[in-house]
Design a protein that fits this description.
By secondary structure, this protein is α/β, with parallel strands linked by helices.
Length: 93
Amino acid sequence: MYAGNDLLLVPSQVEDAFPRVIVEAGLHGVATIGSSRGGIPEAAGDGGVILHPDDVDAWLQAIESADRRRLGAKARTRFRWYVRACPSWLLPG
C-alpha cells in the first residue's frame, strides 16, 4: 500500500493519541499531512506538515505543494530508531 503512495493524509477531528499509521508510512518514506489534534504533530515531526483540521484551503495548498520526497526522507530517518533487528534465533531455518 505505501509503495504506491507518497503522501499520507491524517485529517483527524479527534484527539488521537499517537497514530501508528504515521510511523508505518514514514518507514516507507511516505510524508504526512496531519491535523493539529492530539499526538499527530508529535508523531509526524519534521517528516510532515501539520494543519488545523478545519482549514480546507491550507489542506488543499499543502497537498498540492508539499515536497513529498524531502518530507518522506525526513520521515524515514526519523522513524528508523523505531525498528530493531530481529534476533537470529527467531529467523526461520
